[in-house]
Protein: LuxR family transcriptional regulator
Amino acid sequence: MPHTNMQNTLNSALSDVISALHSPRFTSTLVTLISKLVDYDCAVVLGYRQHKHPIYLYDSIDDQRDLLFQRYLTNSFQNDPFYLMLNQQQQQGVFTLTDIAKQGIDYQQYQTDFYQKTGWQDELSILIEIEPTRWIVLYLGYLQSDKRFKPQQVETLKSYFSVISSLCQTHWQQGGFTLASPVMGTTEATDTTKNCNNDTQQASDHIRIAIEQALLSFGESLLTKREQQVTALLAQGFDTKEIAEQLGVTQGTVKNHRKRIYAQLNVNSLSELFQLFLNHLITHTPSIPTK
Structure:
């Protein structure tokens, strides 16, 4: 009976993901599916494009989030051992820190600079190729010092990798990387499941709403509505060509907007703009409500 219940839970979660394909709900429902397969404390989903900043898609972190935005997405990602392995190997799959060590990639300094400051104790990564220059990376982490990912958990994820990767490829091959929406109640769930996931989901929804509000309000007193649109896309990691395609304007128009945005916000580079937005996000994000 327990096995049957587990299978029913997985089938329900998988049905949710399939229903969410090509919608903003996809990333959230995908993470929910993965949570039915393995236990973890937090998750981060990023979109990687060759030689560009990663695109933030989703996270379930409720503490030390400023380090994710202030450090990782602006600069530290370049020293991320999973990112380095992706660039070196271009290999899909489920990977642990042990796999990183086997590849001869030194992650000790990164562990000191980033893991210890965020509180992450262990981490694994799911690397999925959408196309040769675009990848999805899902990070799963433990914050509790007595928890580590076990071989059985890794094997479970590997056994479902073809399903997870196929879903991601189907969803993202036809569209760009965009922020996730919160999971909406599309299927019936048991009271126990709802209670277990309620706090985590509320925190995730709160985080997403805070990010969207920050994107909408960033520079509003200095920029025009169109410049705000361009700024929000720049802050998410999109380049000039991608912004032009999304807004239906020429690349020259985007470049002109970008020059004025830099002047109005008193920044000289994309990195400085990124830092300014992240400071805005942190200072304008209220604490996550608790019971």
About this structure: The beta strands are 42-49, 55-59, 93-96, 122-131, 134-142. Residues 216-284 form a domain with the Arc Repressor Mutant, subunit A fold (CATH 1.10.10.10). The chain has 13 helices and five strands.
